[in-house]
Design goal:
heterodimer; A: 147 residues; mainly beta; OB fold (Dihydrolipoamide Acetyltransferase, E2P); 6-stranded mixed β-sheet; B: 670 residues; alpha+beta; Four Helix Bundle (Hemerythrin (Met), subunit A); Alpha-Beta Plaits; 5 domains; 22 strands; 23% strand
């Protein structure tokens, strides 16, 4: 009975975010992104991942932060759900942490407004605090019919 | 079992198709013994197969069909239109079974009792069948509640009987939800709660779990035991939001429940098979065996593929020791490799190819039905059934063609009297042709009917406000006729069952364009009309021209490109703020790809512009590009659902260096 869940900790504008490891297909280095005209501002374009075309979004832009400055630490986290695949650009991928159910605090209200629904809760360890992303709502929102 | 299931489905489909064809022929040659024997044989095989797979209802139905056929063979009954109609209905029923099996893995609940009854009536030579048929049709309409009652298991029936003894009433209630209802399961839950206040729900169709999972359409049925009057239910249920209708049938012991003490042979069989269904259903919920899409492949084609792959390995080996050899050898190897990959591509494509016959073969039957329904004599002439198309295209092209054929039969062809008056042959002709034309397959649907009257279309278009009277004046006849493809444009004076509901040719057009094809119409008043559908041979790999726009690369499908021109800037004119060029006496609007694709312009205006002239149907346009990168064979990939709404991008492809290039959708850009 191990109810602990593993999260990959990524960094955006010095803040730590956690993504459920089950939902991550792979993590790749930054590479050339082909821009797609008329795409929403936070979709940077598409990349080729082993023969599949995958859209890539900037989490920074989506969260209303300053636009990305690519460094050698920049990574694209490829998220995969049942039907869809999408890449998310992050400043840095730090580590994998394990949170037990008890150490995750669901948050009633955060000061970040509309981003709130993309957040699942906050995971705490002795040293750090990680905001856990709710990937499902984030991805659902991207589907065109949800407009 | 599933490995046999696929074979069973494939084969049953083939058998049903051949039954269809034979019956059609049989109608014209009722005394052809050979045909009759063939039909009999096929039906028998089908019965056997269904039996082996445990699809008892299919087996029963085919068994009764077989009885009827054997009676025909013995000369006991005569073949006539009605009998053939009935046999066709049975085929439809069998097809439904197969569909159900494909979707769910079981044959479903419908047992087509009515068909079986009718078959038996034919056998006993009953002549009052007409009326009974009507009656049974009505019965068919009542039915959600009846079905719910019929599908009661013995245990549930007993519960009702006990209820009756204790002074309860039993009702079968069907609730219809509003089509726009979003939270269907929540509504259903409220209905259940409401009903539970009055009594005990003993059964619901679909099962409660399925309703909770929203696995139902817009209606569901329940059987309830209660002491209340049925009017009360109606009122209460209807007061719940988003409920459109409620139908209640009272269950009476004598009419609806089977008496357990004196079971008649048939009823017992019935309940047995019904309980079996219930088990199947449970099974269904756990595993949903879905039959995959399969293509039957000629062994020869596989052999070719195998050979090519072996050759490929040889080339790979020869490339490996290239360093040791001279450069000339390297080029040779590359050429060899190229030849093989081209052949390999062809071979793989051929494996995916299926003859259009797969779609065409159901049309004779359809035209026959239409002919009876519309009371017109219609002859369908088909040619080029052997023409091959990609499997994916074949799967999609059926509906648009059905639509075109129905249109031809319904609107295109005149009534028999009118034809005779006009001095035409009494029977109308519909032609369906398929042939290959370069990298396209062309399918034509032509009729020798009344043709399309541009004047009527103009009038209609004006009435509906599709065009203004000003634009109408300037439109050619061809342009007017093409208005038919506009959304919500149906010219049929009366809406008939067959066609003309306002959703029509625009849907056909959209569908065909989605397949990468196009459709045009040619018509001559009084002589007939012809719809020409052009489809690409394959969807996966195309020839494309790679172009440079700013720093970006885009692909334009080669089959849409007419010419490429270098035009001096001075020749660009402006007409109503639209930039145009005049090329060989035609005015062609030009599209600045920079502007449309939001690409920053690379350099200052040059003296000449490179313009790619593309064509879509009759329309042309010139795309201004910065440079041509050459022709290339590209593999089309989808850019995924997240970006699918960007209409001007048809997809993406991966270039030799792993980079991604987008493919322009010429249809939306012109």
């Amino acid at each position: 009975m191990n109810e602990n869940k593993q999260y990959v900790v990524v960094v955006l504008d010095q803040e730590q975010f956690g993504i459920d490891i089950q939902q991550i297909e792979t993590i790749i280095r930054m590479r050339d992104i082909t821009r797609v005209p008329q795409a929403p501002f936070f979709i940077k374009g598409v990349v080729n991942l082993r023969g599949d075309i995958i859209p890539v979004m900037s989490l920074r832009l989506k969260f209303g932060l300053d636009s990305d400055e690519y460094s050698h630490n920049t990574r694209i986290v490829i998220i995969k759900t049942e039907e869809h695949c999408i890449g998310m650009i992050v400043d840095e991928v730090r580590e994998v942490v394990e949170f037990s159910q008890e150490s995750i605090e669901t948050i009633q209200r955060l000061a970040i407004g509309s981003e709130q629904k993309w957040i699942q809760g906050v995971g705490k360890t002795d040293q750090q605090i990680v905001t856990l992303l709710n990937i499902n709502t984030l991805m659902e929102e991207l589907l065109p019919n949800k407009e | 079992m599933s490995q046999y299931l696929e074979i069973f489905i494939e084969e049953s489909k083939e058998h049903l198709q051949s039954l269809n064809e034979c019956l059609l022929q049989l109608e014209n040659e009722p005394h052809n013994m050979e045909l009759l024997n063939e039909v009999f044989r096929v039906a028998h095989t089908l019965k056997g197969m269904a039996g082996t797979m445990g699809f008892t209802k299919m087996q029963t139905l085919t068994h009764d069909m077989e009885n009827a056929l054997s009676a025909i063979r013995n000369g006991k009954i005569q073949v006539d239109g009605n009998l053939i109609d009935l046999l066709f209905q049975c085929l439809d029923a069998l097809e439904n079974y197969i569909e159900e099996i494909i979707n769910t893995g079981s044959e479903g609940k419908e047992s087509y009792e009515i068909l079986i009854q009718k078959l038996n009536q034919f056998l006993s030579g009953d002549s009052q069948k007409e009326e009974e048929q009507k009656a049974s049709k009505e019965e068919q309409n009542v039915n959600k509640e009846e079905q719910a009652i019929l599908s009661l298991s013995e245990y549930e029936q007993n519960a009702i009987r006990i209820g009756f003894q204790q002074g309860y009433q039993a009702y079968a209630i069907t609730v219809y939800l509003n089509a726009s209802c979003v939270l269907k399961s929540a509504r259903a839950f409220i209905v259940f709660r409401t009903l539970e206040r009055y009594g005990e729900i003993i059964k619901s169709t679909p099962a409660v779990e399925d309703i909770e999972d929203e696995k139902f359409d817009l209606e569901f049925s329940v059987v309830i035991l209660s002491q209340e009057e049925k009017e009360k239910f109606t009122k209460d249920i209807l007061s719940i939001a988003e409920i459109v209708d409620v139908k209640i049938t009272e269950i009476r012991e004598e009419t609806h429940l089977k008496n357990p003490e004196q079971p008649k042979a048939s009823t017992q069989e019935n309940t047995q098979s019904l309980t079996k269904v219930d088990q199947n259903e449970e099974h269904e919920n756990r595993v949903k065996p879905r039959a995959g899409k399969t293509v039957r492949v000629d062994i020869e084609r596989l052999d070719t593929l195998m050979n090519l792959v072996s050759e490929l390995i040889i080339v790979k080996n020869s490339l490996e020791d290239v360093d040791r050899r001279a450069e000339q050898n390297f080029n040779e190897s590359i050429e060899y490799l190229e030849r093989i990959t081209t052949n390999l591509h062809d071979a793989v494509m051929k494996v995916r190819m299926v003859p259009v016959e797969r779609v065409f073969n159901r049309f004779p039957r359809m035209i026959r039905d239409l002919s009876r329904q519309l009371e017109k004599e219609i002859h369908l002439e088909m040619s080029g059934e052997e023409t091959e198309l990609d499997r994916t295209v074949i799967d999609e092209i059926g509906d648009p063609l059905i639509h075109l054929l129905r249109n031809a039969a319904d609107h295109g062809l005149e009534t028999t009297e009118d034809r005779i008056k006009k001095g035409k042959s009494a029977s109308g002709h519909v032609y369906l042709r398929a042939y290959q034309d370069g990298n396209n397959v062309v399918i034509e649907v032509e009729d020798d009917g009344r043709g399309i009257d541009a004047k009527i279309i103009k009038q209609k278009a004006l009435e509906k406000g599709v065009i203004t009277s000003e634009t109408a004046e300037n439109m050619s006849e061809q342009e007017l006729v093409e208005l038919l493809f506009q959304p919500s444009f149906s010219t049929a004076a009366t809406v008939t069952d067959v066609s003309g509901r306002g959703v029509g040719l625009d849907v056909v057009k959209t569908k065909i364009e989605a397949l990468g094809g196009d459709i045009e119409v040619k018509t001559k008043l009084g002589k007939g009309s012809k719809f020409i559908v052009r489809l690409p041979l394959t969807l996966a790999i195309i020839q494309a021209l790679m172009v440079q726009v700013g720093d970006e690369k885009y692909a334009i499908p080669l089959n849409t490109i007419q010419t490429i021109e270098d035009i001096p800037i001075s020749e660009i004119k402006s007409v109503q703020k639209q930039e145009v060029i005049v090329l060989r006496n035609t005015v062609i609007p030009i599209v600045r790809l920079h502007a449309i694709l939001d690409v920053p312009e690379k350099e200052k205006e040059k003296n000449t512009l490179t313009i790619v002239i593309v064509r879509k149907g009759e329309k042309q346009a010139g795309f201004v590009v910065d440079g041509l990168l050459g022709q290339q064979e590209i593999v089309i990939k989808s850019i995924g659902q997240y970006l699918s709404y960007i209409k001007m991008i048809a997809g993406a492809t991966i270039l030799g260096d792993g980079e991604v290039a987008l493919i322009l959708d010429v249809n939306t850009l012109v």
